[in-house]
Amino acid sequence: MAVRPGVLHVTQPVDGGVGAYVATAAADQIRRGWRVAVACPPSGWLAGELAGAGVPCLPWAAGRAPGPGDLARAAGLAGIVRRFAPDVVHLHSSKAGLVGRGVIRGRVPTLFQPHGWSWLTAGGPVAAAALAWERRAARWADRVICVGAGEADLAYRHGVRGRIVVVRNGVDLRRFPPACPRERAAARVRHGIGERTPLAVCVGRVSRQKGQEVLLAAWERVTDRDDRARLAIVGDGPLLPALRSRGGPRVHLAGGVSDVRSWYAAADVVVLPSLWEGLPLTALEALATGRSLVASAVPGLTEVVTGATGALVPPGDAGALAEALLARLGQPALTAAEGAAAAALAGGFDVDRSLDELAAHTLEVLGTGEGTGAGAARSRSRNTFDERGLAPHCQTPWGQ
């Protein structure tokens, strides 16, 4: 086992929950004395966070969606692997998992962390192709790390086989302690929200996955019955311009913010109308802050929202979402009780434990050689790439 293991994290996206996870994991491993770098697009939130933590950022110009340019992205990533010479490569999310496993194919010890399975993002033939790829590519990961039990269960039920382990996402309980009444009052003053105004808050990337369009449809029903209620949507993303034209006077689109805690503190209810998830950090942050949650009944969210902490509704069901919100907005005794239960549950999602488990799996891959082959031996021969940086005799999913 390497005395000072070298870990190369590879990620696209560079924002939202995945970006935050990578920044936290890389910074933790630097503190452990490991040799760490992150290959990712050089612009965006993550690059700045890495610089502040002293983690090298190795430019990898990958877009989110698959496309013909991915052959160049594959060669670029293989070159990064060759130059950095990691002991283990940790691939985060669908794009890095696709390109990275297609290039490396077990020649370097590999961890793959989907952060939400790729086949859930599409339908029809695209979803079928994505699932077929995940089934095939699982063999090229020494560990498939799922962020929650629901994500692991989805893999098993869809025939994805391999060394699948669960390392649940965690929340920094020091940064997100329960919000007290004084903090709530100050946050409402800061954001221009009246003390008695019923407020629901949705935090997350503004995208189809996160379900803000469903939330706006539900919100019309909420305000038809309670015109005092206000909704804040916090986050940036591709659907934000479209939402601006639909929001109306009772919806505040805050965009991307550096301090999400103040929005949690101001909220009566935090709403997560996602269509699919892994285990979202926003849900854990809301739990730790002590807020009632209304969320879609999808894997990941069902692990943190119980009858005691809030309500689960069918994904995409605007009517059920509206009813769950109406049952809580303007009911401070109910939301206070659910918030207290949420804060108590959050202790089981401490980020320190999550980081320790991730470190243990990383070291185990290097020390035991379990998975696709002898991890330590492959680590010693990790530079076996041709002049283009591609593994010899290796056909990528896009051809050579």
From TrEMBL:
Q: Where is this region: Disordered?
A: 369-400
Keyword Glycosyltransferase in the entry? The reply is yes
Q: Where is the Glycosyltransferase subfamily 4-like N-terminal domain?
A: 16-170
**The entry's keywords:** Glycosyltransferase, Transferase
UniProt keyword Transferase present: yes
A GO biological process of this protein is: carbohydrate derivative biosynthetic process
Note the SUPFAM superfamilies from the entry. Answer: UDP-Glycosyltransferase/glycogen phosphorylase (SSF53756)
InterPro entries the record matches: Glyco_trans_4-like_N, Glycosyltransferase_grp1
- Which GO molecular function, any one, fits this protein according to its record? hexosyltransferase activity
Q: This protein's superkingdom?
A: Bacteria
UniProt-listed Pfam families:
Glyco_trans_1_4 (PF13692), Glyco_trans_4_4 (PF13579)
The name under which this protein is listed is Glycosyltransferase involved in cell wall biosynthesis
To which species is this protein native?
A: Nonomuraea fuscirosea
